[in-house]
Specification:
two-stranded antiparallel sheet; 455 residues; globular; 1% strand
Length: 455
């Protein structure tokens, strides 16, 4: 077989795997919602236990205490699970290559159902969270905060997708909907992670759930970035030109804020020069070695960030200096996470966030290097790698918000790292694959560019 044939076979197999996994989970989610009104276990738990062990899913250290609370809020959870499953199942079909072009009416009708189901499912999730104390949420307060962030992010991305299609900006619509599907896809991906990491780590279900949640959205964003790079150009052509972003004041300010955060967290706080010492103890700080490994190359990568973003928007390779320091920063984040204290559930989550985000940056850098120069993959992965280096930017504000909501410092830090990495990765996908921020009557970043709905 030729190289092209091999790539097509691999791409097809990957797409079928994603579609089947998503549709099957969507059906299981619907069944789970209905099972809350009966004494039996949901089918999804039975399937997962068969792939791991009964003790892992149903025994000590499992998440069954959370399912018990689902029963007391059964109507809210039924709305969330059943409509979330509907959005996943129908949403997967929206990404079958050629479906939009061959059956535009079906695509529009299916899309409308996905929009309504997604929005209503998120409202059900938030209604459940609003009536559920942090302490009895699966894996504790950090998971509770992460679920709130995910629900709000999903609604925000959905609003962008709706505004884009109303403005006939179909390229933006496709990218925003890919990100909506990434947010929805965290549910099946999390279950896959439960099984995979059961066999890899000596942790119980509660710990593995919190740890993998720290990077599960990055996993699904990677899947949808792959789809956008592989199938997206055939669906809706990429834009011919993009406004420069790297030298904008916003990027420069964000890079400066990120640098200050890493300077404090990596080089000052480990030695006791901690401006947050009044709300945290030494166990919530990086070690001196891990902090230096994370901070020093991150400072260099952030200094090079404007040039890196300019390069990818001009369809050029990432500058080699940024690739080197970005990779060193990612390795440093992994080292920092690996050396953190893991004496509590939330601190295990914080460590997993740093390790998972570092691994994601390495993946994005590799994707940008192996993709064809000037192609959608090179540009997309390059922008994702560059933007995710901004993960520390959201940390101070997000930590403060978590503390105000009653979380411990470790729980707030865990959620803040998820928020920061998600914002960076989402921003990278938007920049790299040509999405524009929409508000009624205005498009930020460029003059409105209308594209045909179908070929």
């Amino acid at each position: 077989m030729t190289d092209t044939t091999v790539r097509n076979v691999v791409a097809g197999a990957g797409l079928v795997t994603v579609l089947v996994t998503t549709v099957v989970f969507g059906l299981l989610a619907m069944e789970h919602g209905l099972s809350l009104f009966s004494p039996r276990h949901e089918l999804a738990a039975t399937v997962t236990s068969s792939l791991t062990s009964s003790a892992y899913i149903f025994g000590e250290g499992s998440l069954r205490y959370a399912n018990e609370h689902y029963v007391t809020e059964a109507v809210k959870m039924l709305v969330h699970m059943a409509l979330g499953g509907t959005a996943l199942g129908l949403g997967a079909l929206q990404f079958v290559p050629g479906m939009r072009r061959r059956f535009p009416r079906l695509h529009r009708i299916g899309g409308l159902v996905v929009w309504v189901a997604t929005a209503t499912s998120m409202v059900g999730a938030m209604a459940y969270l609003a009536s559920t104390p942090m302490a009895i949420t699966a894996s504790g307060g950090g998971f509770w905060l992460a679920l709130w962030a995910l629900a709000l992010l999903t609604l925000g991305l959905l609003s962008q997708a709706v505004l884009a299609v109303k403005g006939r900006d179909y390229r933006s619509h496709m990218v925003w909907m890919a990100l909506v599907f990434a947010a929805l896809g965290t549910a099946p991906m999390l279950r896959v992670d439960w099984v995979v990491f059961y066999w890899l780590l000596p942790l119980d279900h509660e710990h593995i759930n919190l740890a993998t949640t720290g990077f599960v959205l990055l996993q699904t964003i990677a899947v949808m970035a792959w789809w956008l790079a592989t199938f997206g150009p055939a669906e809706i052509p990429t834009r011919k030109s993009e406004p420069p972003a790297g030298r904008s004041p916003v990027v420069i300010v964000l890079a400066a804020v990120g640098a200050l955060v890493m300077l404090h967290e990596g080089l000052f706080a480990p030695y006791g020069l901690d401006a947050l010492g009044f709300v945290r103890g030494s166990a919530d700080r990086m070690t001196a070695l891990g902090g230096a490994a994370a901070a020093v190359p991150t400072l260099a990568a952030l200094a090079l960030l404007p040039a890196a973003l300019n390069a990818v928007q001009r369809n050029l390779r990432l500058p080699i200096a940024f690739v080197v320091f970005g990779a060193l920063a990612a390795v440093g984040w992994i080292a920092a996470g690996s050396t953190l204290a893991t004496d509590s559930l939330a601190r295990v989550g914080v460590a997993a966030c740093w390790i998972g985000t570092g691994g994601f940056v390495l993946l994005a850098l590799a994707g940008s290097l192996v993709s064809r120069v000037g192609g959608p993959g090179s540009k997309g992965w390059g922008a994702i790698a560059a933007a995710t280096v901004l993960t520390p930017v959201a940390w101070p504000v997000a930590v403060a918000a978590g503390l105000l909501l009653g979380a411990t410092f470790a729980e707030a830090s865990y959620a803040a790292l998820i928020v920061g990495s998600a914002m960076g990765a989402v921003g990278g996908v938007a920049v790299g694959f040509g999405a524009r921020i929409q508000v009624p009557g205005r498009v930020f970043g460029a003059v409105r560019e209308r594209q045909p709905a179908s070929k």
